[in-house]
Write a structure and sequence with these properties.
Glutaredoxin; 2 domains; two-stranded antiparallel sheet; PDI; protein disulfide isomerase activity
């Protein structure tokens, strides 16, 4: 993936709205990775203003996939400061939020963040449970294979081969 990432970075090197960057989470970038919840390599995060928390990229990892995403999805998004980038539907919803009292907006935002965090925690717990169940099942299967293999071999060895049928005589035609 690294060559594709580097090619993407080169493609957007002159962009004023899209920045492609690497962070080494094992060295000086560790605090940054911790701040944004990066736990493994390669993790791709993207930020669209005014988003300051970033989102996990879940798309394809080829240069074509990355380039398509960067071209179509990155850059200034819909916000109060960039209304020209908004669809009519987004403008309507944005106006609804603008008209909402600031405290209500903040409460709604925190509620959504909490709901998302709880769902992610439940998802992670389920993943760990499934991994544990899978490992247990795999261990049981391997044990059964190990125990069964010698028996299967001996059972096959103890079973005489079926007698070969005599091949019919062939006559030469004159």
């Amino acid at each position: 993936m690294k060559p594709d990432w580097d090619a993407l970075s080169a493609d957007f090197a002159d962009s004023k709205t899209v920045i492609i960057a690497d962070v080494d989470c094992t060295a000086g970038g560790k605090p940054l990775c911790e701040k944004y919840g990066v736990r493994g390599y390669p993790t791709i995060k993207y930020f669209n203003p005014p988003d300051e928390e970033g989102e996990d990229y879940k798309g394809g990892r080829t240069l074509a996939d990355l380039k398509k995403f960067a071209t179509n999805e990155l850059g200034p998004g819909c916000s109060v400061d960039t209304l020209d980038n908004c669809t009519e539907e987004q403008k309507t919803k944005l106006q609804e939020y603008i008209d909402m009292p600031a405290e209500e907006r903040a409460t709604m935002l925190e509620s959504l963040k909490t709901e998302l965090k709880e769902a992610e925690s439940k998802h992670e717990a389920l993943l760990k449970e499934l991994q544990s169940t899978y490992k247990s099942s795999m261990d049981s299967l391997e044990k059964l294979k190990d125990e069964s293999a010698p028996k299967i071999k001996l059972l096959k060895a103890a079973t005489p081969a079926p007698p070969k049928e005599a091949e019919p005589e062939t006559k030469d035609e004159v």
